[in-house]
Design a protein that fits this description.
It contains 9 helices and 8 strands. It has 307 residues and is α/β, with parallel strands linked by helices. Helix 4 crosses helix 5. The chain has one domain: Rossmann fold (3-Layer(aba) Sandwich). It has an 8-stranded mixed β-sheet, sandwiched between helices. It is globular, with a radius of gyration of 18 Å. The mean pLDDT is 96.
């Protein structure tokens, strides 16, 4: 992990402009991205002017189509694209035979909330309607993401619940942003953690939620919800050395109190953004645990569909 942090520091923006910083972020992500797994089909699509990237096994789809994970990338709502986060899809693809649909959602500060959330909802409804491909299941659907993508995933579940629409089979959240409050102990304990500081968390939230009233919207910050009943089961992975760690703890506890089944995975030795480091000691077990959860709930969905 220390070697990963040191190498990441080499990808410095040429200046402090947002475009330069985004380019540096992309270069870092590409550097750490492994080869695509063999036997997988990867294709970009356009649905309602929203770009999606579909990863699916090249083998024939099972009856009813491939169980599918809708994936929302991290990057503080301001960084990242389809080209920056292949590494996440590749790691999951090597472990579990599910299709993955990544979303190129609009970025802040040019497009503050609810732009990224609306794009997430558009992608979800396209999957439900069978508009992303006949080889993908319309029923065996899960949602997940890292950091800001975990935020969007949890927000989607709340919005679907409030609209009386079916929940995903699983919400898989990796070191998610879930609260605009900075009063968690980990925000102080790891205020100057590598890869993400408490100040950077605050700045990212301010850019994504420029109006104070937005922070009370549970779709934007799920821990602001007064009621978390009726949500999808959750897999929540938190990094040991992360200012956001305790937000994951709080969400898991709030879901438990609301009667929502969830698994809290504490990644020892991990920093925020550490999944990018690839197949190393601190990271591989996180992917393994997430893959087990995806496999479990995809199988549950298969049983429900067959009944």
């Amino acid at each position: 992990m220390s070697a990963f942090v040191s190498k990441s520091a080499e990808f410095v923006a040429s200046d402090m402009s947002l475009s330069s910083r985004r380019h540096a972020f992309l270069r870092a992500c590409r550097h750490f991205t492994a080869q695509a797994p063999s036997g997988w089909f990867i294709e970009d699509q356009l649905v309602d002017e929203l770009k999606l990237r579909v990863y699916k096994p090249a083998s024939p789809a099972p009856e009813g189509g491939w169980p599918t994970l809708l994936y929302l990338h991290g990057g503080g709502w301001a960084f990242g694209s389809l080209d920056s986060h292949d590494w996440f899809a590749f790691a999951i693809a090597r472990r579990v035979p599910v299709a993955i649909v990544a979303v190129d959602y609009r970025l802040a500060p040019e497009h503050p909330f609810p732009a990224a959330f609306d794009d997430t909802l558009t992608a979800w409804h396209a999957l439900r309607a069978g508009r992303v491909g006949s080889a993908l299941s319309r029923e065996r659907l899960m949602v997940g993401g890292d950091s800001a993508g975990g935020n969007l995933s949890a927000g989607l579940c709340i919005a679907l619940r409030d609209a009386n629409e079916p929940q995903p089979l699983l919400q898989a959240l990796v070191y998610p942003v879930l609260s605009a409050s900075g009063d968690q102990p980990s925000m102080r304990e790891h205020a100057d953690a590598p890869m993400l500081s408490a100040a950077e968390v605050t700045d990212s939230i301010a850019a994504y939620l420029p109006a104070a009233g937005m922070r009370a919207d549970a779709r934007a910050m799920p821990l602001a919800a007064a009621d978390l009943t009726g949500l999808a089961p959750a897999f929540i992975a938190v990094a040991e050395y992360d200012p956001l760690r305790d937000q994951g703890y709080a969400y898991a506890e709030a879901l438990r109190k609301a009667g929502v089944k969830n698994e809290l995975y504490i990644a020892k030795g991990l920093v925020h953004g550490g999944l990018l480091a690839g197949e190393i000691e601190e990271v591989s077990p996180v992917y393994d645990a997430m893959a087990r959860a995806l496999s479990q709930y995809a199988a549950v969905g298969a049983e429900a569909t067959s009944r």
